[in-house]
Amino acid sequence: MPTTTPRQDSPPTLRPRDRRRRRVIVITLLGWVAANAVALAAAGRALPFDWPGVGDRSAAGQVLDADLRALEALLIIALAYALTRRRAVPVPELAARAPGRRAALRETLLLLAYGACGLLGGFVLARAFGWHPFGFHLAGSVFGTHEHVAPAEALTWACYNAAVYGVVPLLWFGRRHPAAALNLTSRDRRADARLVAVVLLVESVVQFAALRPAIVGLDGAQLALGVPLTFALFLLGAVLPAMVFIYCLLVPRFLRLTGSVAATVVLGGLTYAAMHLWDAWTVFDSPGHAALSIVFLLFTYVPPGMVKTTLTVRTGNAWVHVWAYHALVPHTLVDTPHVTHVFGIR
């Protein structure tokens, strides 16, 4: 009687989309580990940055802090997925908000070139007046700076960014695409509001616990004037420019070109980091300092940029990240003391 060997079940195979997602995750993790190695090798005991808000923490401690902030961002991303698991916008629908692949590639390259020109123009304009170069953050934001920022610099920074990255691109693309195609409408306002409330609450608790923001030391008059002024200044100079340029325009095109949510989230984070190239603390006076500046730009801005992209992709609404994870926390919470100092509010 012939014997038969039991059939071995073949291991499950990953679908192309799953393999692409795994590849993106692996490459991103390897890149992060490599950035850790570069930072530790190039920094020595201390970093060359003007960070009065950080104190005397060692370079290794700063790298560890960056890793913990990245972990916190991943937890926020997981929270966003959990809260939107039953209502996430289908990937094909979101990708369809961009034009066909050839047109999407052309528009993406033009937008990135336009963003680079905007950074160059911000450098030239600011230096002409003896100011810090204009990027997506006002000099002294988040980390602080020992150099004083004049009110004229702060107002010009906000107006420049609002015009270059917000008004001009929105007018150009708004004539060709409806608001829904620009991620400016909500499919479910109540669900979006619930997501905003939860993420805002969680991030506020984290910011208070980790940073102990100096806003708690301001008096009533400083809060009454400084909070709305900070909110308006950073809404114009940082929040709306980032929303329009990256999350309304580039994110749907990234998704159209890659067909991958994971790749889109990473590209959104990298673009967000690139738009902060001129942060006042960066130092480019030597190859080693330049490498550290690039690494810590990535450490500082890729994780929150990925969170913002995730919130946009999962809801199809670029306004969600504005209120949940940008305008109020961190900027109004963290930067109000800086703005009160800039404008002499006592």
From TrEMBL:
<feature type="transmembrane region" description="Helical">
    <location>
        <begin position="24"/>
        <end position="46"/>
    </location>
</feature>
<feature type="transmembrane region" description="Helical">
    <location>
        <begin position="66"/>
        <end position="84"/>
    </location>
</feature>
<keyword id="KW-0472">Membrane</keyword>
<feature type="transmembrane region" description="Helical">
    <location>
        <begin position="290"/>
        <end position="307"/>
    </location>
</feature>
<keyword id="KW-1133">Transmembrane helix</keyword>
<feature type="transmembrane region" description="Helical">
    <location>
        <begin position="195"/>
        <end position="215"/>
    </location>
</feature>
<feature type="transmembrane region" description="Helical">
    <location>
        <begin position="227"/>
        <end position="250"/>
    </location>
</feature>
<feature type="transmembrane region" description="Helical">
    <location>
        <begin position="109"/>
        <end position="134"/>
    </location>
</feature>
<feature type="transmembrane region" description="Helical">
    <location>
        <begin position="154"/>
        <end position="174"/>
    </location>
</feature>
<protein>
    <submittedName>
        <fullName>Uncharacterized protein</fullName>
    </submittedName>
</protein>
<feature type="transmembrane region" description="Helical">
    <location>
        <begin position="257"/>
        <end position="278"/>
    </location>
</feature>
<keyword id="KW-0812">Transmembrane</keyword>
